[in-house]
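Priority: medium. Attachment 1 of 2:
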């Protein structure tokens, strides 16, 4: 039996479907958090057992773990949120929820595999190269520069603009938002648990995931969902900064397949892996592709120059380790995925 925490959500539900298709017994454990679910999702797989419950409740977690020989931990509060008043909610659901789950696994003598949904946000501003000083870390962008429309990070030594390069899994962790800090915390907790118990832990660092079942009209959604929500409502997507910030957009079915590999490969793979398409694109390019797939008359994206201090400029991945060690390579076509996202009904949170 494989337990999928957060299995009713956007990514979790696709993982459940992929596991069921692979003839695995699956139990979904989800607290149906109101910011993610206003009502019980219609997409819950009927072949999976579903248990409602909160990861911070030890008794419910113990019940969820009965008969489980693998855990796929997807449950988390996601996104940048709305303001700093969200901090306790992120720490509760992402930090304490993970801590309770790990404690109950240890108490039960769990010896199976553990797969964690991590995120590219753990890398912070990503990797850069200075024309004069070579590869170098970027300092956080300042409010003063952002207010002047100077969005590119600068070299901390010579102040030249930096060129972004792909991050690999050895890149130092540098969280720059509350959500990012909790994802780093999850990784640290899970790898400490692994060292103490010898349970193999795989952390899958998702890049910008998109696809069917994305939630609409919520401040906790990713940029692809926000743009799709705007277009579905007949509004132009609002592209922050100058639209040239680069990301790696990976389809949710590819992400689900990576989880199935981590859970079912003959031998467990240990450590962190970027789960990405390997083909970075700008946010503006993604907005144009999505608007172009929406149909004639769809409003063109508007580049606003707005910014959020917690955002990073460029972060995209090297997917080499996931292919070499995990056997994962993204296969979904970007243009086809944008067309699918433009026409698929979005999930009302």
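Attachment 2 of 2:
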């Amino acid at each position: 039996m494989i337990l999928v925490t957060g299995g009713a959500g956007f990514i979790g539900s696709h993982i459940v479907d992929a596991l069921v298709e692979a003839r695995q017994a699956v139990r979904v454990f989800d607290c149906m958090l109101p910011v993610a679910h206003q009502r019980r999702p219609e997409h819950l797989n009927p072949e999976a057992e579903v248990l409602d419950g909160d990861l911070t409740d030890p008794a419910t977690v113990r019940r969820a773990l009965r008969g489980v020989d693998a855990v796929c931990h997807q449950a988390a509060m996601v996104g940048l949120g709305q303001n700093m008043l969200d901090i306790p909610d992120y720490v509760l659901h992402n930090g304490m929820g993970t801590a309770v789950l790990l404690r109950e696994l240890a108490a039960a003598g769990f010896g199976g595999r553990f797969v964690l949904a991590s995120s590219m946000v753990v890398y912070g501003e990503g990797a850069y190269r200075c024309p004069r000083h070579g590869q170098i870390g970027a300092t956080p962008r300042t409010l003063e520069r952002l207010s002047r429309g100077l969005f590119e990070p600068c070299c901390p030594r010579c102040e030249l603009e930096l060129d972004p390069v792909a991050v690999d899994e050895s890149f130092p962790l540098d969280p720059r938002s509350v959500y990012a800090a909790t994802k780093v915390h999850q990784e640290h907790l899970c790898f400490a648990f692994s060292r103490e118990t010898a349970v193999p832990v795989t952390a899958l660092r998702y890049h910008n995931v998109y696809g069917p079942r994305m939630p609409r009209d919520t401040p906790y959604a990713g940029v692809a969902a926000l743009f799709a929500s705007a277009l579905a409502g007949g509004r132009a997507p609002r592209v922050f900064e100058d639209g040239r910030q680069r990301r790696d957009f990976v389809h949710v079915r590819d992400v689900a397949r990576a989880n199935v590999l981590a859970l079912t490969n003959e031998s467990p793979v240990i450590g962190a892996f970027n789960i990405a398409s390997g083909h970075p694109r700008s946010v503006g390019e993604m907005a144009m592709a999505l608007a172009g797939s929406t149909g004639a008359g769809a409003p063109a994206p508007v580049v606003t120059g707005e910014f959020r201090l917690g955002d990073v400029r460029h972060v995209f991945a090297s997917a080499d380790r996931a292919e070499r060690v995990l056997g994962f390579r993204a296969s979904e076509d970007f243009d086809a995925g944008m067309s699918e996202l433009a026409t698929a009904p979005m999930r009302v949170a």
